[in-house]
Design goal:
The protein is an alpha+beta fold. The protein folds into two domains: 228 residues, P-loop containing nucleotide triphosphate hydrolases (Rossmann fold, 3-Layer(aba) Sandwich), CATH 3.40.50; 99 residues, OB fold (Dihydrolipoamide Acetyltransferase, E2P) (Beta Barrel). The protein is 29% helix and 33% strand. It has a six-stranded mixed β-sheet, sandwiched between helices. The chain has a five-stranded antiparallel β-sheet with strand order 13-17-14-15-16. A four-stranded antiparallel β-sheet has the order 2-1-4-5, with helices on one face. A hairpin with a 2-residue loop joins β1 and β2. α2 crosses α3, α2 packs parallel to α4 and α3 packs across α4. The longest helix is centred in the middle third of the chain and has 18 residues.
Length: 338
């Protein structure tokens, strides 16, 4: 049995089924992400693991123990929330030490354990400060340290970075991954941000309407989305019907006219001069946007709007014109479920 095992778990609020036959396995020391839009059930599933929500069907095991009916305080599960939930009248040291103090641990041992974790989260010079004297990133590091110092079997993180600005958020993504690797702790991270999930995760579980619709490594998920929902949620895919694809490639024929196809925006290129074997087609530029290292172009190809991501370099800047010949290799056209 895996370190965390969930079997056919369902949860209802009244007549509304919020989680629908959820099954997943998580190995010790793994960092997985529950990824999906608001209202898909990812935070509810996290609260179920923490013991904060009661499910009606299924099984939940942690370290081979059935914890379905165990109180939250007895599960040895840590949780970090979006809001930092720090005690404003306590110093950073006191906030981090709070859980150990509740366990009536000796003061010298508390200090030793707190200072260990403080060094890991780079807050050594802030231990005597109060929460209002810290930045948002430092407050979230404090919240993270408070959960880690009690040495939980698993740490649950419910969109902990969503309230932070972009620069601090990106730094904390790196910090969390490094901290997880250093400590070898098992983590479950909840987010609606697919880039964040890609950066952090060993595996990603994509959720929609209370179900897990696909689980895979970040690379697998990006390259091979299972269905239209995943393709539209991960990366910048063009979703085409068989009829649409034939407008781009007249030689194309599908066994099933109901098939749906996905093409990554970066797999479409400005046509090379020679020597390539693939599909060549003409496009009318509708508009383009510079996104830092990428130029995102929208082309009209026989009535089909295609998103094309080009590297932002001098060659491509000069090549963006009202009319363009585009190119794609057939292997980059992925058949997906609706």
């Amino acid at each position: 049995m895996s370190f965390i095992t969930i079997e056919d778990l369902s949860l209802r609020f009244g007549e509304h089924k919020v989680l629908k036959d959820i099954s997943l396995q998580l190995e010790e020391g793994e960092l997985i992400t529950l990824l999906g839009p608001s209202g898909c059930g990812k935070s509810t599933l996290l609260r179920v693991i923490a013991g904060l929500e009661v499910f009606q069907e299924g099984n939940l095991f942690l370290d081979k123990e059935d914890i379905s009916n165990i109180l939250p305080r007895d599960r040895n599960v840590g949780m970090v929330f979006q809001n930092y939930a720090l005690f404003p009248n306590m110093t950073i040291f006191e906030n981090i030490a709070f859980g150990l103090a509740l366990k009536k641990m000796p003061k010298d041992e508390i200090r030793r354990e707190v200072m260990k974790i403080v060094r890991l989260v780079n807050l050594e010079d802030k231990i005597d400060a109060y929460p209002h004297q810290l930045s948002g990133g430092q407050q979230q590091r404090t919240s993270l340290a408070r959960s880690l110092v009690t040495k939980p079997k698993v740490l649950l993180l419910d969109e902990p970075l969503s309230a932070l600005d972009a620069k601090i958020r990106k730094q904390l993504q790196v910090d969390i991954k490094e901290l997880q690797r250093t400590l070898g702790i098992t983590m479950i991270f909840v987010t609606h941000d697919q880039e964040e999930a890609m950066i952090l995760s060993d595996r990603i579980f994509v959720m929609s309407e209370g179900k897990i619709v696909q689980s895979a490594t970040p690379a697998e998920l990006y390259a091979y989305p299972k269905n239209q929902f995943v393709a539209s949620f991960i990366g910048n895919y063009n979703i085409l019907s068989a009829k649409d694809l034939k407008k781009i490639d007249p030689t194309f024929s599908a066994e099933n006219a109901e098939n749906t196809f996905a093409i990554r925006a970066e797999s479409i290129q400005l046509a090379p001069s020679s020597g390539e074997k693939g599909i060549f087609f003409n496009g009318q530029l509708i508009n383009y946007t510079v996104l830092g290292s990428t130029i995102r172009c929208i082309y009209d190809v026989n009535g089909i709007k295609l998103s094309v991501d080009l590297i932002n370099n001098e060659r491509n800047q000069e090549s963006i014109q009202s009319q363009a010949q585009l190119y794609i290799e057939r292997t980059n056209i992925i058949s997906i479920e609706k």
